[in-house]
Amino acid sequence: MDITTKNSDANPPAAPQPPTAEEKRAARGATRLGDRVFLGLSRGSGILLLVVMAAIAIFLTYRAAIAISKDEGNFLTTFEWNTNATPPVFGVAVLAFGTVISSIIAMVIAVPVAVAIALFLTHYAPRKLSGPIAYVIDLLAAVPSIVYGLWGALILVPNMKGLFGWLNDYFGWTGIFSWQEGAPRSMLTVGILLAIMILPVITNVSREVFRQTPRMNEEAALALGATRWEVIRMAVLPFGRSGVISASMLGLGRALGETMAVATVLSPSFLIQTSLLDPGGGTFAQNIAAKFGEATEYGRDALIASGLVLFVITLVVNGAARAIIARRAEYSGANA
Amino acid sequence: MSKRIDVSGLSAYYGSFRAIEDISMTVEPRTVTAFIGPSGCGKSTFLRTLNRMHEVTPGGRVEGKVMLDEENLYGTGVDPVAVRREVGMVFQRPNPFPTMSVYDNVAAGLRLSGSYKKSELGDIVEKSLKGANLWNEVKDRLNKPGSGLSGGQQQRLCIARAIAVEPKVLLMDEPCSALDPISTLAIEDLIGELKERFTIVIVTHNMQQAARVSDKTAFFNLAAVGQPGKLIEIDDTERIFSNPSVQATEDYISGRFG
């Protein structure tokens, strides 16, 4: 003890020096070879991603601009897709409507069912049962969309007539559910098929979120005399709310962009049906798949332009979802 | 309206493991009873059998009788949900509902039971927050999230939430172990006030705390790890800390083990 005291008396602490370049590098953790390599790799990957994204965006915007500049119709409101005509006439109104409507139907059906399944698996089912069910749902997510499409066309479509007739009988007066006895290759059928397709991903993500509900929040509700359902309402659902929204966005992303299943089931046309039961309409992805093969170069540019609109719609929807989550961030379970 | 607790021959299990064995004791109304003992001796488990929270743990099972005045909590046909409305609980870590405001946290239990008039709700919330010595600190931020309060305030919020439904008994599972000394003091003062209205049972690792707040103290111990915990003795706090009748209690209190 004595020695150290003497030493520090003899050498008063030096005034702080500005860090040298060497020290700055050390502070960034990039002095060792391994650190330098990893830093270079991760930074390079990040830059590469941005470059690829920018290249795609520039290419798409450029080709789309060419197409739109020659479009004789109004690109946003025209109910027609005739890129071979001189002058060409095409618009995305029908596609935007069909894409949004089919996705809304899918979400309305899939989200409540998925949340219910997730709650069942995490809070009601015995462990012996929840494992196998979760496994089957994982399998559903892995089925290729063309298989869903074939199933939809061969099984779902022929069996929809009963439902359509019933809807027409009781809700036909609304106009939305009227049916002129056409083939049930309509938006409702597409929406139901999409709902089945996006169910697994929403269920899986919701299940993970619900499973992470803090045990102490559930116990707080139980100790107040909450029943199992009240525990879910007070502790589990509020905690999982933002997670369920994120899960739904994943599902919605798939529904908006789904191609083969829609193309196989829908009987497309360039008109907007006020009834969800009458065949017709189209979606962005379905239209691109249907037209791309026989399109001229100009036709392809027009399809690219429609793809850009789909991209914008996806961005808007995601932004809205983020805004909803952020609005109540201070109440989120993450603050617990 | 506090009630007497009369436990006889109570054992609790986790699966096939017996965590506590053959516990019998009486807790008088309007008193504070402290449970002390080394970790793993089953005092928290025993506490959770008093409001049937033990059985929500997977594999949790209880044998024996817990009488709340004339009613056996483990009698056939007794609804555990109803039991928990009579026997409130405060946990080790403050656990206000993070998605609810201060006001909604206190009102949560009332809204569950539905046993209130709409016009009275605000009064009950105010009365409960005052009862938990929290009103002055939160009266201007009733609509802010409960998770925004300090740890000590959150714990008093949880106490307010528990007493808002007017339970007969209040169980506290190490309510101060996550708090600083000043917040601890606030809670201890509060316990002294609350015992005028409720039967209070508190688990604590802090023997000074047990000596400060309780009228009776129960000492729990276990023979060895893997053996069930047992009640060694329960007596007036003063007597336990000055002249206990069992040697193991004296050893534990004087710091010779545990």
Number of domains of chain A: 2
Q: Taking Cα atoms only, what radius of gyration of chain A do you get, to the nearest Å?
A: 28 Å
Mean pLDDT of chain A: 87
Q: Any idea of the CATH class of the largest domain in chain A?
A: Mainly Alpha
CATH class annotation of the domain at 5-95 and 171-253 in chain B: Alpha Beta
Largest sheet of chain A: 2 strands, antiparallel
**Portion in beta strands of chain A:** under 5%
- Spatial order of the strands forming the largest sheet of chain B: 6-7-8-3-9-10
Number of helices of chain B: 10
Strand coverage percent of chain B: 25-35%
Overall mean pLDDT of chain B stands at 91
Which value, in Å, is the CA radius of gyration of chain B? Answer: 18 Å
Going by helix content, strand content and strand pairing, the class of chain B is alpha/beta
Named at the architecture level, the CATH assignment of the domain at 5-95 and 171-253 in chain B is: 3-Layer(aba) Sandwich
**Structure summary, number of beta strands of chain A:** 2
Give the proportion of residues in helices of chain A: over 70%
Multimeric state: heterodimer
CATH superfamily of the domain at 5-95 and 171-253 in chain B: P-loop containing nucleotide triphosphate hydrolases
Instruction: Please identify, by name, the CATH architecture of the largest domain in chain A.
Output: Orthogonal Bundle
Explain what you see.
Chain A has helices at residues 2-10, 21-28, 33-70, 93-124, 127-142, 145-156, 161-171, 187-211, 215-223, 228-257, 260-265, 284-292, 297-327; strands at residues 81-82, 89-90. By secondary structure, chain A is an all-alpha fold. Chain A has two domains: 19-70; 89-335, Orthogonal Bundle (MetI-like fold). The model of chain A is unreliable at 1-10 (pLDDT under 50). With 258 residues, chain B is of the alpha/beta class. Chain B has a domain at 5-95 and 171-253: 3-Layer(aba) Sandwich (Rossmann fold). Chain B has ten helices and ten strands. Chain B has helices at residues 43-49, 80-86, 102-113, 118-131, 135-138, 151-164, 181-194, 207-213, 237-242, 247-253, and strands at 5-14, 17-27, 32-36, 60-68, 71-72, 87-90, 169-173, 199-203, 216-222, 229-236. In chain B, strands 6-7-8-3-9-10 form a six-stranded mixed β-sheet, sandwiched between helices. In chain B, strands 2-1-4-5 form a four-stranded antiparallel β-sheet, with helices on one face. In chain B, a hairpin with a 2-residue loop joins strand 4 and strand 5 (71-72). In chain B, helix 3 (102-113) packs parallel to helix 6 (151-164) and helix 6 (151-164) runs parallel beside helix 7 (181-194). Chain B is globular, with a radius of gyration of 18 Å. Chains A and B meet through helix 9 and helix 10 of A and helix 2, helix 3 and helix 6 of B.
